[in-house]
Specification:
It contains 6 helices and 2 strands, in the order αβααβααα. It has 156 residues and is of the alpha+beta class.
Length: 156
């Protein structure tokens, strides 16, 4: 997943993505999450709030979406200041085709299902094995298996 749903998310947003599909032999949807430490959460919230304020005041006529993002950033900052935690989250969707000829149909079906769920997915070219393993219920902690440590990635 490269982008989370924008706006309000209803409880049924993932319903079609999670349901069986006639063109996909096997599909697995894995939600990944990791809590942020309080110092990183505070920095992230303040950066988001500052960026939202800049977008809202940097335009003579901000759009409704920009104003809504600004309100959401301020609400998140308020909740974090009251002690709420932040969570980094992502999603891996894997699909299995029974033969090579079905791949285009499976890709199209996944793209359509992602659109109905209002998420953005990106194909994992060259790392399909790693993405598949990450989507299995094995209890892998993915950040511990990265070649670039989290501290360095955070500084980039």
């Amino acid at each position: 997943m490269t982008g989370a749903p924008r706006g309000e998310v209803q409880s049924s947003v993932l319903e079609k993505l999670l349901a069986p599909h006639s063109e996909i032999a096997r599909k697995r949807v894995t939600l990944l999450y990791q809590t942020m430490d309080s110092a990183a959460a505070a920095r992230t919230v303040e950066n988001d709030k500052r960026n939202a304020d800049f977008r809202a005041t940097g335009s003579p006529r901000p759009t409704a979406r920009v104003i809504r993002e600004q309100r959401a950033a301020h609400l998140t900052a308020t909740e974090e200041a009251r002690g709420a935690g932040l969570v980094n989250f992502g999603m891996i969707v894997t699909a299995t085709a029974l033969n090579h000829d079905q791949l285009p149909d499976v890709e199209a079906a996944i793209d359509n299902l992602a659109a109905t769920a209002r998420i953005q997915l990106r194909p994992v070219y060259g790392s399909q094995d790693s993405a598949f393993a990450a989507g299995l219920p094995l209890g892998l902690v993915l950040p511990k298996h990265l070649k670039v440590p989290a501290e360095i990635r955070a500084a980039l």
